[in-house]
Write a structure and sequence with these properties.
Layout lengths: L24 H17 L3 E2 L5 E3 H7 L5 H6 L1 E4 L5 E4 L4 H11 L9 E9 L11 E10 L4 H17 L5 E7 L6 H14 L6 H9 L10 H7 L11 H17 L4 E2 L11 E9 L7 E7 L3 H4 L7 E7 H7 L10 E5 L1 H17 L4 E3 L6 H10 L4 E5 L1 H6 L2 E5 L4 E5 L1 H10 L6
Parallel strand pairs: 1-5, 7-8, 12-13, 12-14
Antiparallel strand pairs: 2-4, 3-4, 5-6, 6-11, 7-9, 9-10, 10-11, 14-15, 15-16
Helix pairs in contact: 1-5, 5-9
The structure holds histidyl-adenosine monophosphate (HAM).
Histidyl-adenosine monophosphate (HAM) binds next to strand 6, strand 10, strand 11 and helix 11.
Amino acid sequence: MSPEAPPRKDLTAVKGTHDIRPGEVELWQKVESAARGLFELYGYRELRAPVIEPTELFEKGTGETTDIVTKEMYTFVDKGGRSITLRPEYTPSVVRAIIEHRLDLKPEPLRFYYFGPMFRYDKPQKGRYRQFHQIDIEVFNEKDPAIDAEIIEMASALLAGLGVGDAETLVNSVGCRACRPGYSAALRNHAEGIRDELCADCRRKIETNPLRIFDCKVESCRVETARFPKITDSLCEECRTHFAQVRTLLDLYGLPYRVDPSLVRGLDYYTKTTFEIVSRGLGAQSALLGGGRYDDMMRDFGGPDICGIGFAMGLERLISVLDITPEPRRLLYFAWLGESGRTKAVEFARFFRRGGVASLVEFNQKNLRSQFARANKLAASWVCVVGEDEIARGRFQLKDMAAGTQIEGTPEELLDLIRRKPADPA
Ligand code: HAM
């Protein structure tokens, strides 16, 4: 394709997916490295699970009445006749991995983190994609409300460290298997009374799972859900105490939050605490992250009877609210002259890379002038000239592109100089 040809319209990324290109990816790397560093400080370890899983993992884990399972999964039958799903979320995968490898029998704390792509077939819009990326953390076998508060504090610390200023924390309790059926019955009764005001999908949810009406995105249904009975008025003693302790601990951390009784979250597995951190800067898709407790999932899958809690943060949404300029990369560009210059430049580039300096030799350049022009275009920090004269003398010119200064030395001296006195970005 010639540089003048218009881009082909038929050869584009699948709708709702996108490329993360150089220039953007540096911010992703920065966020991932900040998250990794923080999670390790809190005693978490990385667990990488496959992108494809058996479909039943999500049907059973995420829940059969959720929007994710009823409408949004990328599911296909593979050549072996198995139903496979591109994971829409990560939580059930971690539960499967723990059961499969009996990680619960290991001495290490069951605290895991993960970064990776998730897939949901929803209507794409700003902040909502069909392939998106999550940072996910999960903790198991910790019943104490202290862990609920600690993971909210950890999420807040990550956001604060990245300079996210306008975030608001919402918390709720969705009860447990003892108290939720009573609440669901009350909700069903209420919803039955206003059936005609609800959309067709929500009318169906009255029978299947009235809690899921809270997930509806239709404006008239949202108006109705604001008048629904509050789950916080139906909690059993244990759930009420747990929720009160979570809030006391958040107060101890000095973390502001708002109790939002409509925060049931769009997944069936939650018990007790649910929470979200939202940002006004995000518009309609305002949740930067969401999570909660899921004390029954492991047992429901036939695993050990241990509780779980976690959250997932949407990386696209997080990155869209960040106001960080990643540090420009520092690059040493080798400008070579003649065949021997080219060979030496290759040798030196290896030497400097081993010394930790990003170095580039390009082989498609005609002369020194074009190589200096390239170095300028690439915003290289330094250019090192390697020609026959320099090779004969064993001393080379290093040009600091921002300062416009030039210094001569052996490769060892120049490496030492770069390491001791980094150049200003060009
Ligand atoms: P979720 O609320 O479905 O929870 O997703 C978590 C976060 O992922 C959202 O707050 C949002 O930032 C991002 N997200 C979700 N869907 C999309 C999308 N279509 N496009 C862009 N970003 C999106 C979960 O996934 C649970 N597994 C969280 C959890 C972990 N609960 C317990 N442990």
